[in-house]
Design a protein that fits this description.
Layout (H helix, E strand, L loop, with lengths): L5 H23 L11 H18 L5 H15 L2 H18 L7 H18 L8 H19 L4 H22 L1 H6 L4 H17 L8 H15 L4 E9 L9 H9 L2 E9 L2 E8 L2 H11 E10 H15 L5 E9 L2 H10 L4 E4 L8 H10 L2 E7 L6 H10 L4 E4 L5 H9 L7 H12 L3 E7 L4 E3 L2 E3 L4 E5 L2 E6 L2 H12 L6 E6 L5 H14 L4 E6 L5 E7 L1
Parallel strand pairs: 5-6, 5-7, 7-8, 14-15
Antiparallel strand pairs: 1-3, 1-4, 2-3, 9-12, 9-16, 10-11, 12-13, 14-16
Amino acid sequence: MDKLTGLKFKSMLVSGANHLTNRHHEIDALNVFPVPDGDTGTNMNLTFTAGVKEASAHPSAHVGEIAKTLSKGLLMGARGNSGVILSQIFRGFYQSVDGKDVLTAHDFAKAFTRGTEIAYKAVMRPVEGTILTVLRESANETLTYVEKNNVTNIIDVLDYMIERAKVSLENTPNLLPVLKEVGVVDSGGAGYVVVLEGFYQDLLGKPVELSNEVHAVEGVQSKMENEEFGFCTELIIKLNPDVLPDFSESRFREQLEELGNSIVVVQDEDLVKVHVHTLTPGDALNLGQIYGELIKIKADNMQQQHENIAHDHLMHGAKPKKKYALIAVSSGDGLAELFKRDYRVDLIINGGQTMNPSTEDFVQAIKSVNAEHVFVLPNNSNIILAAQQAESLLDDVDVRVIPTKSIPQGLSACVMFNPQVDVDENVNEMMEAYKHVKTGSVTYAIKDTSMDGITINAKDYMGILDKTIVASVPSKNDAAKALLDKSVTEDDGLITVLVGEDVSDTEQEELLAYIAEKFDFCEVEVHQGNQPVYAYIFGIE
C-alpha cells in the first residue's frame, strides 16, 4: 500500500478504537498503585472513541481534513493524563498532514515524529519510561528506517513501528523503577501499542471488530456519552445469608458492565458497596436486590446537572461578567457543599478518582460561571492536564489552573483566595498555600502486590501519604492511625479530616479520640465529605 486514502484512514481509526475498547480493562489492570483508580485504559478508550466518532462522521475523504476533525474530537474528549497525551499525539499528526489529500509512507512516518514533539510539549516534566518514551523511540526509529531504506509501503512502516514500540514498551520497567518493582510495563505505552495494532490489522484487511463481551457495554457507553452520562448510582447491599458464601465481586461487576461504566464494587463481609454510571438506575437496583437487601440508595441525574450548567450559561450570557469565579473538582456531596458553602467555590465538577472529567467538561463549566477571571482547582494529579488543555482553548476568559493534586490542597488554595486583590497576587498566594499541605488518604487495595517494602493484600486498607503507601492492614482505622503516625510532626499545626461515606459513627469517634490524644499540639477540623472510594482524606499542615 503506497498511498493512505481518507476512507482507509477512517476505517483504520475505527479498527484502532475497537481494539482499544476490547482491551482497555487489561490496560487498566497495569496500574501500578493497587487502588481503585486504575483508569488509564478507560481514559484512553473514552478519549480515542470520542475523536474517532467525530472523524468517522466527517463527510470528507481528505486525510488532512479527517485528521483535523479527529484532533478536535480527541482534544475535547480527553480524560486523564493518558487521554490528554493521546490527543496531543494526533494533534501533532494532524499538523504534519494538514493539506494532504492522501499520505505516502514517508508522510505517515513523519506525522508520528511531529506527534512526539507536540506530546512532549504538553507535559511540563516529561518522565521517561512512559507512553512518551514508547512514542518517541518508535516514531524516530521508524522515520530513520523509512528514509534510510526508501520504504514506500505503509503496511511495512506500521509493522516496523509496532515492533519498535513493543521493544520500547518492554524496556519501560528499566526506566521507571516502580514498574519493575510491581512487575508491569507502562499502561499508557501499552494502550498506545494497542491502538497501533488496531491500525495494522485494518491495513491487512482484517479490521478489529468489537468483541461480543464489550458490544453491550460500549453501546451503553456511547449512548451515555451522547446523553451526558445518565445517573451516578450508588447503593449498599446487605447480602442474603444464602448468597454470601458464593458471592463474586468480579461476576457482579461484569453484570453491572452491561448497564453502564465507572464501576466500583467493594465487598466488606456481608456488605457490598456499588458505584455505577448508568442510564437505567432502576436496573442497577433490581440487580442489587437479587443478592440482598438495599440499605442505601442514591441516584444523581448527571444529565440534569449538565443541562443546569448549560442553562446557567445561557441565562448569564446577557448579564455582565463578574470579576472572579472558582471551579473545583470533587466527588461526594459533603465535599461539594463544603467547597461551595465555606470556601467560596462557584461551581463543582463532579469527578476525581475513577471518574476524570474531560476537557469539554472544563470548557463548559468555565463558560457557565460567566466571569472575567476563573480559577480552576483540579484536586487530582490525573486531571490537571485536561484542565490546562481547556485553559488553552478559551480566549475570551482569563483561566488560571491552580495545579492542586488533592482535595486538601484545593481547600488550602481556596482559603488564600481574596476577591479584593488582583489576579496575579491571588495566583501566587494560592500556589504558595497548597504546596505546604501534606495529603494522607485511606482506601482499599484491589489486588495483592508489594510496594516500597510493604506487602499488600487485596481488600486491605492502605494508608497513603501523598503518593507513597506507608501502611496496609485489614482495618481502615488502623491504616489511618499508622498513616497519621508517619505523617504528623510537631512542626504541624492543623489536621483536616474528611470523612468518607462508608465510615461508621463508631469508627469516626474512635479515630478522632486517637487524634485528640496523640496529636494534642494540632488543631483538628472534621468535615463529612461523604466521598466514595476513600474512607478518610487528611490534610496536614
